[in-house]
């Protein structure tokens, strides 16, 4: 059974994401931006073993 999302919460999340990210990258230097983007790319594309307990 799929959960129905709260439309107001979805809209707030959409607004926050579209406002915060560009502002944050605009205030960074080119070196900082490249470092953050590189770390993000490595995190997305690197496969890691999941710990099991």
Your description of this structure?
By secondary structure, this protein is an all-alpha fold. The protein contains 2 helices and no strands. It has helices at 7-26, 30-45. The longest helix is centred in the N-terminal third of the chain and has 20 residues, at 7-26. The two termini are 29 Å apart.
Oligomer: single chain
Approximate strand percentage:
under 5%
Report the total helices: 2
Straight-line N-to-C gap: 29 Å
What string gives the helices and strands in order?
A: HH
The low-pLDDT segments are: none
Radius of gyration: 17 Å
Q: What would you call the shape?
A: flat
The percentage helix is: 55-70%
How much is the average pLDDT? 78
Largest sheet: none
Structural class: mainly alpha
> Number of DSSP strands?
0
What secondary-structure arrangement, pairings included, does this model have?
Elements: H1 7-26, H2 30-45
Features:
single chain, 53 residues, mainly alpha, 2 helices, 0% strand, flat
